[in-house]
Amino acid sequence: MPTILHALVNHPKAEEYRDVFSRLKMLIGGAALPRGLALRARQLGMKVISAYGLSETCPALTVAGYKEHILDWSEEKKFEVTLKTGLSFPFVKVKVVNEKGEEVPKDGKTVGEVVVRAPWCTREYYKDPEKTKELWRDGWLRTGDSGVWDGDGYIQLVGRIKFVIKSGGEWISPLILEDLISTHPAVSEVAVIPVPHEKWGERPIAIIVPKTEYKEKITEDEMRRFMEKLAEDGKVAKWWIPDRFLFVESMAKTGTGKIDVMKLIEQYKNLKLE
Q1: What global pTM score does this model have?
Q2: Which of 52, 71, 54 is nearest to 63 (CA)?
Q3: Which of 148, 159, 210, 264 is 20 to 30 A from 249, comparing alpha carbons?
Q4: Can you tell me the distance from the alpha carbon of 42 to that of 252, in angstroms, rounded to the nearest whole number?
Q5: Which residues contact 153 (CB under 8 A, 6 or more apart)?
Q6: What's the rounded Cα separation, in Å, for the pair 224 and 242?
Q7: CATH architecture of 93-158
Q8: Strand, helix or coil at 219?
């Protein structure tokens, strides 16, 4: 889990264990690997790589390994590959489809639902035929995750379908925003969630746990300027920038160590936005 990696690389004595970290290879699954966390691990010499699966797939589906032609790429370009959700394992079939079940273009931009088949996927939910029917709609296991794929077949998740933010009729990916916000040096953890908005339907806000040394220094204005610079550089659309950046001591986690998004959505559902 990213939570375990986060605890390791942000330990007060992490620098003292650089030699140990340099011998570690860590496969990250269960939640998206934030870019900022991956960069911190790499600074300490640790090799990290993304993987993906569900409880219903027992669990492995993809891993961000290198195709042969990628081996000759620069370390920076290969690092970008390790952040992707990855390529399918042997005996796993993965595709990204639209609402009609048709494959979306492999352009790295068109969003669809990730659907899978594998010998180890669960056949059914216990005593729940309706939920099972929905899970295996059209003969493919519906992951409930939205993503894109590229010409090499690499999948990149952009969020859970039920958590993707719909603002003014357009989709905003919380995972992409979290990935970018995590690269700010003051950010320890971040979650981007939807908040109701009278005009736009929903707007994103960012909940941030700052690093200890930045708790009294980081401000909303600084984070907004940081995101505006990324927008100027073409990394994110300007209208994607969260309306609010809120700083907290900690965020609730699920039993598997993920940030509990549902609790955050409930907690901030009445937040007033201009």
Answers
A1: 0.79
A2: 52
A3: 159
A4: 27
A5: 87, 88, 106
A6: 8
A7: Roll (2.30)
A8: coil
CA distance 161 to 97: 13
Domain ranges of the chain: 2-88, 93-158, 165-267
In one-letter notation, the amino acid at residue 174 is P
Q: How many CB atoms lie within 10 A of CB 16?
A: 9
Element (H, E) at 60: strand 60-63
What is the CATH number assigned to the segment(s) 165-267?
3.30.300.30
Residue whose structure tokens are 């995972």? 175
Report angle CA 163, 95, 117 to the nearest 5 degrees: 100
Residue among 169, 170, 173, 148 at smallest CA distance from 160: 173
- DSSP 8-state secondary structure symbol assigned to residue 226: H
21-76 pLDDT per residue, tens: 999 999 998 888 889 999 999 999 999 999 999 999 998 899 999 999 999 999 99
